[in-house]
Amino acid sequence: MSTTLRFKMVEEAFNRKAIAVETPDKRPDEYYGELVFNRQKMFQYLPKETYDALIDAIENKKPITRQVADSVAIGMRRWALDNGARHYTHWFAPLTGGTAEKHDAFIEHDGKEGVIEEFSGKLLAQQEPDASSFPSGGIRNTFEARGYSAWDISSPAFILDRTLCIPTIFISYTGESLDYKTPLLRALNAVDKAATAVARYFDPEVKHVTSFLGWEQEYFLVDESLYNARPDLVMTGRTLMGHESAKNQQLEDHYFGSIPSRVEAFMLDLEIRGHRLGIPVKTRHNEVAPNQFELAPIYEETNLANDHNLLVMSVMSEVARKHNFRVLLHEKPFAGVNGSGKHNNWSLGTDRGAMLFAPGRTPLDNLQFLTFVVNVMAAVHRHNALLKASIMSATNAHRLGANEAPPAIISIFTGSQLADILNRLEHSEVADIPDLKKKAGYSIGLAQIPEILLDNTDRNRTSPFAFTGNRFEFRAVGSSANNASAMLVLNAAVAEQLADFKVKVDARLEKGETLTDALLAEIRVLIKQSKPIHFDGNGYSDEWKEEAARRGLDCETSAPVIFDAYLSPSSVEMFTKTGVLSKPELEARNEVKWEMYTKKIQIEARVLGDLAINHIIPVATRYQSMLVDNVVKLREVFGDRAAEMAQCDLDTIESIAQRMTTIKTTVADMVEARKKANAIENEREKAVAYHDNVAPAMEKIRYNIDKLELMVDNEIWPLPKYRELLFIR
Ligand code: ADP
Ligand code: MG
Question: Whose CA is closest to 230, among 19, 398, 9?
Fold first, then answer.
């Protein structure tokens, strides 16, 4: 790119005005969900028996018959056509991340050289997309190439871009999951079963426990002209070079600051689109870094919430384009400023309206609260390495352990009030507990522990997993991730833990202990056992890293090695016991993870090599030769007197030469390291080689390019700089 082009792009971005948003002439409650085949539409478009059968299947997690599927298909097609859709697609989340669609028109041959509109129950319920080009970690023979997508009736169909989208799971011919939704649904069933059994100690009427997720999506916006002028952003989603801007976030003037009008228009447009799609988006604000923002909906059932997040991520990109922006979902698009995460607010609630992580008014409620909270702590402790693996990726690795993000160590923040209660409970005697059936008024009645009135303003932003009053907030999840990865591990781990807890409590009950005694005794065991996971201090500090290692928490930082946790005996046992993933599935999925890791680093390394050799070095050379010219001219004009005058130029010439040499040799080393790594057959070993040998070379190249940026004439620097990329006017 010529520099005149850089300045043209900067000017274009600078002069851009907000795009007017077409606001519907209806109130939000009137257009909310209008593009969703929700219960209201089902009732309207389906025969009564079909409607009843479908709702029964959704609520009681039962399969539907072929007959019902056929009848639903007819109604769904009619609704879709009435609303402008002409195509339909099975919509699923393959292991590559993001979502996949294959569109088909609603037509079939009519046998008379024409077509009829056609969409049967079979097409609704099941499809065979050519799955050969989706990664399967070897589960599915590529020439077999058969994978099935099957309708997930618990997530309603919707219309996007005049296409009826049917949320589906994606499985292999032999039934192994090739996506995120399948194991997520299995984990949600497992936690429902295990948590229901425990919740019945407190309320025998409980039939189901639902897992809830409220995600907070962070993202960056960049003007489209500037984005297009940065091949690294276009191809990798992050800047592979760029010196820090003199001003970035040090003044902390962006967080909750006023939103620029162009961004405000984008947000409004996105919110309207979201509401029409039945996504309850609610909160929007600036984030800490310049050009960084956040979007959060009201929490929903976890599977639905996750579909909505996937949908929002794709709609966001589309709406951003309309407003001449590009949305960056990468976890660390810019060095030196905050990265983006996706906080997963998570809770469990019964069909009787009890929120299981919320303290209540009565001692019994509070015993329930402590039971569930302590079991979560135990599960997170038991599987801390696995939970870290669940949020790890080539992109999130840049954010974790950076100064603004959780460290690559999982711990739980409880806040001082809960910490105090746990502490007192641990050391109290069972005999101290008064009769729990007696309403204890404002006192919890448990071993002199006062009523639990938790203050959720007690926040610790440095914790990867925090208790926030009535829910847990898993903050280590990456902004570009599919939440299902973290949610399936968390829900499955908690399911396993609750099932174990139930066995132990039941054994005590059989021996004649009272329920209270039995619960408290087991709660005490868990508090003691899971102590190492509890950390309320500063997660960014170096002392914590040492302390965490002493406590036996997983401190591994290399992403490909972190993935090993999926295959550890305790993980395999947990996944098998809960029925969430089999060992072959886990092995296959890890193959995909390692392969994806390698490919991401490989692409970045190629792009950086190209930018270094073909964009930066030529410009640095040009500037260097301008300086050489100047030195020669100084000597011509001033003769001996030039020595001192030329010194400054000579120093710069030398520094540039040194940087360029380092860049050139490091690029050559990096290419060599890549060649060696590419020759490795084993996917894990290959990914480790990319992590250990290729990634560090990239750091070194970048460091030297960023130094050159400070030396070379601004007029000829080819790529938009951080100060230009990061400040929307
Ligand atoms: P903050 O940024 O202070 O953490 P936000 O208001 O941005 O809070 O986001 C909080 C998120 O947590 C929202 O999506 C909200 O719906 C969700 N949330 C609130 N209560 C629960 C709950 N009990 N279970 C799951 N999510 C919840
Ligand atoms: Mg939050």
Answer: 9
